[in-house]
Design brief:
It is a single chain. With about 180 residues, the chain is mainly α. Helix content is about 75%, strand content about 0%. The chain has two domains: about 1-30; about 35-175, no CATH class. The relative contact order is 0.12.
């Protein structure tokens, strides 16, 4: 085995110079402001939520929650409580959409659920809320609703959670994506 001293020094110099240039670049380029980072995280969460509403192939609940918890952790400390509330609403609505897709075919017409989720994906929370409430009324008026199962009650509860989140944060969910 032979060692090339010139090549070693050349590689070491290149590594050292690259590290110095990288440090200089980080010093010259300022980080994004907390407001910009917050806005970007909220827009990314909203984009993912709309894709989830329109998707046929869904992530697991754990994948969705991990992604959203990562965004919550990435929120700057200067973020407003309303920004955190919007991100938490996106987390809960996304988790409920995943559950809807899994359990709704047992209780509701999949076409009704698809129509509600498509309205949400098109930034129309009022129509989505109306269709979700219609699904809830249909569940309540079923012949077996006199003795509802725990799964049916959970489904109705999930519908109400989504309706409440959509109505409380309608301005956020109806927002045009700009990030």
């Amino acid at each position: 085995m032979s060692y090339d001293t010139a090549q070693f020094y050349n590689s070491a110099l290149a590594t050292f110079a690259g590290c110095g240039i990288a440090a200089l670049a980080f010093a010259l380029l300022p980080p994004l402001s907390p407001a910009v980072r917050t806005r970007r995280l909220l827009m990314l969460a909203l984009r993912d939520l709309r894709r989830l509403a329109a998707a046929r192939r869904l992530p697991t609940s754990a994948d969705w929650e991990n992604r959203m918890y990562g965004r919550l952790l990435a929120l700057p400390e200067q973020a407003e409580p309303s920004d955190r509330a919007q991100l938490l609403a996106a987390l809960s609505v996304g988790a409920e959409i995943i559950h809807f897709r899994q359990f709704a075919p047992r209780f509701a017409a999949p076409a009704q659920l698809d129509a509600a989720l498509k309205a949400f994906a098109r930034r129309n929370c009022e129509i989505a809320i109306g269709r979700l409430r219609h699904i809830d009324r249909d569940l309540a008026s079923r012949p077996d609703a006199e003795r509802p199962t725990a799964t049916m009650l959970r489904m109705r509860g999930r519908l109400l959670v989504v309706c409440e989140a959509l109505s409380e944060h309608a301005a956020y969910f109806n927002e045009e994506q700009s990030a």
